[in-house]
Every structure is written in structure tokens, then in C-alpha cells.
Design goal:
six-stranded antiparallel sheet, alpha+beta, Thiol Ester Dehydrase, Chain A, 2 helices, about 150 residues, about 15% helix
Amino acid sequence: MSDAGFDPALIGDLRELIPHAGRMCLLDAVQAWDEHSIHCITHSHRDPHNPLRSHERLAALHLCEYGAQAMAVHGGLLARREHGGKAVPGVLASLREVQLAVDRIDDIQGPLTVFARKMIAGPAGWLYAFDVKDGARWLAGGRVSVIRP
């Protein structure tokens, strides 16, 4: 990933780029992004008030939401750069080839890094691949497809 498209001033508040508010915005910051991919970081898995927690735990399956949010942030950044506006909202249509290396993530001490790579983009929607890591340790990955309503 090159930093050719990376402009910290363009990013601003991530909540302006995705349709999530408050604590449901799970990502903390964008580390790098370009036309085809994004690298985000977060500590929200450690938040005892994370809205995805159940019985004081956060299941690894929720890493799919982290991947989808990275995808949404990427789409928002591209829309902002290309026409100064917001991305057209989409509906998560499917998760494919999801693999999880852990059962839960609330017990991970360090930050999570979330990578998303655009595979297909067109008038009907988008397909992205995502990976989530704890340092060098791979935690989860898969593909997310989103359609335009």
C-alpha cells in the first residue's frame, strides 16, 4: 500500500464517513489508504462499553463488522476525494470465506489493525477482502459484499 492518496486532513472524524454513531463507530484512526486499500487501527475491542459485547465478552465474529467498517471508511474517503461528498450508503449483502483464528477479542491487550482491500466496485455495489491482526498475529479475514439499495 502506498501513501500516495493518504491525506490526514481529508480523513477528519471517521463518524462522518460511515453511518454509525457514538461507540458503534469501532475504528479509531486510519493509518494509510490509497485507491485500492485501507489500513485502520482500533482499541475499541478493549472498551467495556463496546456495543457488540455480550456477557462481558466480544466474540471474534464481530471482527467482520470491523472489516466492514474499514470498507465503509475507505468508500467514504474515496467519495470525499473524488467529488467532495459522502459515499452512497449500502447494505451488507454477504460475508464469504470468513476465517477466525481466535474465539474472542476482548482479552487482546494491544491495538487491532484492520486491513481492507477493494476487489470489485461498480454501480451495483462493492466487494472487499479484509484481514484483522493483533501485531503480527492474524486474527480473522474474509470477504464482504455490499449492494446499493
